[in-house]
Amino acid sequence: MRNAGPVLAVLGLILALWYAGAVWLNAAWTYDQASRNGTEVTMALLLSDTMAQERPVLPPPHQVAGELWKGLTAWAPSSKKSLVYHGLVTLTATFWGFVFGTVLGCLMAVGIVRSRVIELGLMPWAVISQTIPVVALAPMIVVLSNTLGFGERIGVENQLVSKTIIAAYLSYFPVLVGMVKGLRAPDQMQLDLLKTYGASEIQTFRLLRLPSSMPYLFASLKVGIAASLVGAIVGELPTGAIEGLGARMLIGSQFGSPIIVWAALFAAAILAGVLVVVMAGVERLVLKKMGMAQ
Amino acid sequence: MKSSALALREGVIAVAGGVGLVVLAFLWARSSVGQIDAPQYGPGWSFWLMLAAAVLFAWDLSRLAIRRAPRLAQVLVPVLGGLFALGLWEVLTRAFEVPEVILPAPSAIWGAILANLDLLRDDFIQTVLKGAVTGYVMGAAAAVLVAVLVDRVPFLRRGLLPVGNFVSALPIVGIAPIMVMWFGFDWQSKAAVVVVMVFFPVLVNMVAGLAAADRMQRDLMETWGATPTQRLRYLSLPAAMPFLFNGLKIAATLALIGAIVAENFGSPTLGMGFRISTAVGQLALPLVWAEIAVAALAGSVFYGLVSAAERRVTFWHPSQRGK
User: Fold this and answer.
1) Do A46 and A116 fall into the same domain?
2) Which chain A residue shows the shortest CA-CA distance from B161?
3) Are B158 and A57 within 8 A, CB to CB?
4) Which positions, given as ranges, span the membrane (chain A) (predicted)?
């Protein structure tokens, strides 16, 4: 809470800059209209007009907030106009991508900690996999999941499958790195102790390595779930999706209405914030239960 | 005694595995499994045997290398792993006669690369050099400048760190359609997306880095009567370098993503993202994979260059020593 003042100040500064930018960027349109009507642009008119244009270059914050509020509350959550609906579509892909990414990351981490061959053979490629722009793969993944019809077989949309794959691709890496660190966190003394107790590998793993990796795991999960959301949205952009927050951005850009794009962007930002906060809550609960809370 | 027996065993396994692999490969090539076995039956037993032998051989060779030549193994094992994956891909796509529409074999992709060199070069220049690299340099430079300015005002710094950290976790790629509206279809809009995506991770890391010099070092600069500029030059900036490069490395992977995503919202008939989406529509899958290969290579090289620069600049840092 020590930082509340400075944070608010910075947010205020950003808001002020935003309003100034909105006036500055939207002014061209106002002047254009005025010269067409042969009227003079007064300061008051400039300010009021740039704040309330139909298709502003940069919508001022209150317009975005209004659209966001409308999108969240004006329609029932099941309506295709509702941002809640689109948010849930994206959230579903985020969730599954996060689950698969986490499981994959944990499995790879266990392999890497157990075997030096796997570590040397896999780790550099895991790093390289993250330097590959996954969006380049996105259309391919869509084609693959459509052709193979994998989604139909398990009773979900192919679109969801491809989004899930992309989300998992982005979220497994932080988990992998965190878990490798975490599983190696116990020091030699603790490992020796378990050895003197005659603990088997599996017991050592279950009683020592796994519990001591938990703080690392949760730190990674918070990064991973944000990455997963980015993946789900990126997965909607190049794939011609019609549902989801990414699709809203696409639609907004196609119809040339920036306010929709901004509202979707902020809905995504809020969703990201909520996800990270929820994850932090789960972290506090689990660590407390395990007696590791600070 | 024990170690020499171990060495003997390792040697025997390695040699036997290698010979077995070669013999099996030879047999497999002679019988050409792909022709005999109809795809609905899949490849025959010799194929699976060979695959098993290859796995065992690669595994054993890696273990041998790790024990006998740990330094060599650092390079050998990843390369072996990569080659193995490529070989597996090639062999499996051929053995199961996977249609090119689903997954082309690496050799087909290589053929597409050779056949479309000019196209790939133009797309590379448009997306990577004009879009990603320009935006990366501008965004990173702007972030460093802002960080240096903010560092003078502790109040702002305390506020900016949490906000910047939060913004770094947001799906900023979403601004791509807005930037395309603002800056048009050509590379300027792509660079603009990259600027915004790169800005926050670099800013957050640089701000944290500039605050990294400890109390004692600051006091020392004070006793020497250093001016603020001197303190920045001789203490804060060098101390911030490990942090800066951390941000630059994160940003390097983001830059290409930004440039390619932005092309989905409108681009001239050029660029990797544009080519990939149109080629997918034409089912020219080897070309798509050729673009993906170039993108992967570009991304890895970009990251590698930043890492190499990091090693040169921050050679004194504990994480870089002994490398």
Assistant:
1) no
2) A7
3) no
4) 83-110, 122-144, 164-183, 216-235, 255-282
Q: A170: Cβ–Cβ under 8 A, 6 or more apart, which residues?
A: A97, A101, A134, A227, A228, A230, A231, A234
Question: A147, A134, A88, A145: which is closest to A235 by C-alpha?
Answer: A134
Task: Please provide the size of chain B in residues.
Answer: 323
Q: Give chain A's mean pLDDT.
A: 82
**Contact yes or no for A136/B276 (Cβ under 8 A):** yes
Distance CA A184, CA A34 (A): 68
Q: Above 70 in pLDDT, residue A92?
A: yes
What does the pLDDT read at residue B31? 53
Residue type, A79: S
CA distance, residue A240 to nearest chain B CA (Å): 10
Look at A237 and B176 and tell me if their CB atoms are within 8 Å: yes
Q: What is the pLDDT of residues A64-84, one digit of tens each?
A: 888 888 877 777 777 777 888
* Per-residue pLDDT reduced to its tens digit, A1-55: 567 788 888 888 888 888 888 888 777 777 777 777 777 777 777 777 777 777 7
pLDDT band at B39 (very low <50, low <70, confident <90, very high): very low
Q: Where are the alpha helices (DSSP H) in A56-133?
A: 61-73, 83-114, 116-131
What tokens were used for B175?
Answer: 């601004």
Helix (H, G, I), strand (E, B) or coil at B54: helix
Q: Which residue has the tokens 């993906």?
A: B292
| Whether residue B124 is found in the same domain as residue B68 | no
ipTM entry:
0.74
Residue A200, domain member (yes or no): yes
Same domain assignment for residues B79 and B28: yes
Vertex A95: Cα angle to A288 and A227 (nearest 5): 85
Q: How far is A184 from chain B (nearest CA, A)?
A: 17
Contact of B193 with B174, CB cutoff 8 Å: no
Per-residue pLDDT reduced to its tens digit, B238-279: 888 888 988 898 888 888 888 888 887 777 888 888 888 888
Using alpha carbons, list the distances in angstroms from residue B180 to A4, A149, A205, A236: 35, 34, 51, 17
| Identity of residue A127 | V
Please check whether residue B104 lies inside any domain of the structure.
Answer: no
Query: What sign does the CA torsion over A177, A183, A189, A195 have?
Result: negative
Cα–Cα distance for residue pair B133/B128, rounded to 1 Å: 6
pTM, 2 dp: 0.80
> Which residues in chain B are contacts of A14 at CB distance < 8 A?
163
